[in-house]
Amino acid sequence: MRFSTLSKLVVAFFLFASFSGPGDGWKEKVDPVLLGKSGESQIEFMVMLHQQADLSAAKNLKTKAEKGQFVFEQLQKTARQTQPELWTILEGEGADYHSFYIVNAILVRGSGDLIPVLAQHDKVAWITDNPIYRQATYFKEAPDLTRGPTSVEWGLSMINADDVWALGYTGQGVVVGGQDTGYDWTHPALQPKYRGYNDGDVDHNYNWHDAIHEINPLHGDIDPSDPNNNPCGLDVTIPCDDSSHGTHTMGTMVGLDGDNMVGVAPDAEWIGARNMERGYGTPATYIECFEWFLAPTDIAGENPDPTKAPHVIANSWSCPELEGCNPGNFPVMQTAVDNLKASGVVVVVSAGNSGSGCSSVSTPSAIFENSFTIGATAQNDTIAGFSSRGPVTVDGSGRLKPNVSAPGVGVRSTIPGGGYASFSGTSMAGPHVAGVVALIISANPELAGDVEAIETILEETAIPKTTDQECGGVAGSEVPNNTYGYGRIDALAAVMKALELSGVVQPEDPSKYIEFYPNPFNNELHLAFSFYFGEADVEILDASGRLVYQTQWVVNGLRDEVLNLPQLASGVYFYRIRIGEELITGKVVRQ
After folding, report:
1. N or C: the chain end with fewer CB closer than 10 Å?
2. What's the angle, vertex CA 448, arms to CA 447 and CA 453, rounded to 5?
């Protein structure tokens, strides 16, 4: 893993703190926000330990399964070896606590008088507040009652996802994850692809996790302890969305229901976790979900299994400073992101909607080196005005962000209750990228777990986008820049790059040698070959990637065949022809 400037600062701080002397030296290890709470009877805070697991060997492992198992074992081993002394102290004081291992840290709920006691322990590196986090803002569009379902949503066409489906890659064999406001798993566009659903049989173990254990006081409910304030309740054992945000983001990743083609990777499976209570969460709920994705558990939270981890997760939430996020608690979240990536999971994060000014990418998890951060573009293929820009200055790193951009304005997707709606925000852009990750892996399964390779493909194949905006001394005319990153993603180019790495060859200009005519066609479609020799596998797929026609011929230089296709309904279809190592694709239209 790359070692960021923030990591170096954190390590330096930890080393300094470990040599703090008696007296008031413990205060150097405590978030200043907490110092004012030391006398309170009931507060919540995170205790981060000095010793963190060494995961450097993970990069030398080849498969995602090997990486996941190694990282899981190392993290658990470190936590078990270093935390028990602190557990004893907490139990002796009657404090409630929760042990984490994705970060070697302990969430504590108890008296503020515990802070100096814990801070003076030589195993403790830093104690931070557990402030309130909130989902990335997004914008609901006014419904267009004249608009019905379309074959392919504009964002999917813009990134050429439909051309990837024509190649036969629709996310099959890939698992995507999301942590958000929850998910309406019964939505017709989502239920068939939920990993816990199999032809009517349902099993939520290892496929759903709820990190919401209490009502968030920021809502100002009359009775803040009443679980009925939340439409889903607390600690729910089946997927539920207490807002509409999570369901919308999952639809953009995998959604498909008849003509409602809203998902980038409609044949990927999905799993999910709820990390926000009606839009509000805490560092603990986010870390709990990151940990669950590293090694999903059964519904009781037991028996973690890293082999059931997803390939990619989408994160459409952020932490504004006004809600308590500050450099003092950045390292906890950063470590979780770093360790999840080390396990072979791509961590996709929305950049935020803080507007067009420079350095507006300023909140976790978008600011981190190992987060793959996404800006939002509009239908005219330019950056959205609300999309946050880099560089990251809140941690002093000057890091370029976002990494890439994707459609995020007027994105139509699923909402609870079986409906559809259009939202805008980088929350809508991030899921497009998570879906493309699924397409890449379905095209070249050997890339699963190779996060650096996948991220490099996305950056190198993005459509370069420039601007007259200069941020952080980087001219907008340069690529990458702090407005678009490397540019707007191109799913087809990314998949072709992935295929190239797997050895599949695409001819430079197959149109010179293969022709479908007439196009558009009625019942009969001609296919003419020239200068091709060998066995040709011919397939026709509908707009959702389903195979509707298949045949095989031997081609000896020239051949003209007629395909009788009266059974096909009017619409757009894709062809896929394999001859030896070559793969030729394109579109035809049935009138």
Report:
1. C
2. 45
Residue (of 363, 453, 369, 394) closest to 137 by Cα position: 363
Is the separation of the CB atoms in 54 and 109 below 8 Å? Answer: no
DSSP state of 244: S
In this structure, which amino acid lies at residue 327?
P
- Alpha-carbon distance of 298 to 589, in angstroms, equals 47
Strands 139-140 and 419-424: antiparallel
R_g (Cα) of the chain, nearest Å: 25
Residues whose CB falls within 8 Å of the CB of residue 166, separated by 6 or more in sequence, listed in order? 541, 545, 574, 575, 576, 585, 586, 587
Q: What is the β-pairing status of strands 175-180 and 312-315?
A: parallel
Token reading at 198: 């199999």
Residue 488's SS3 state is: strand
Give the amino acid at 332.
V
Please give the structure tokens belonging to residue 209: 């996790």
Please give the structure tokens belonging to residue 165: 């489906």
Instruction: Give all domains of the chain, ordered by start, each with its CATH number.
Output: 5-130 (3.30.70.80), 135-500 (3.40.50.200), 510-590 (2.60.40.3080)
Two structure tokens written together for 309: 């981890």
Asked if residues 96 and 130 have their Cβ atoms less than 8 Å apart, the reply is no
3-state class (DSSP) for residue 421: strand
Residues designated as active site: 180, 245, 427
Could you tell me if 435 and 447 are in contact, meaning their C-beta atoms sit under 8 angstroms apart? no
Q: Residue 30 carries which DSSP code?
A: B
As given in the structure block, the two tokens for residue 281 are 């969460």
Give the helix/strand (H/E) hosting 523. Answer: none
How do residues 492-549 score in pLDDT, each as one tens digit? 999 989 988 876 555 455 555 678 888 888 889 888 876 667 888 899 888 767 788 9
* pLDDT 10s digits, 239-290: 999 999 999 999 999 999 988 999 999 999 999 999 999 988 888 899 999 9
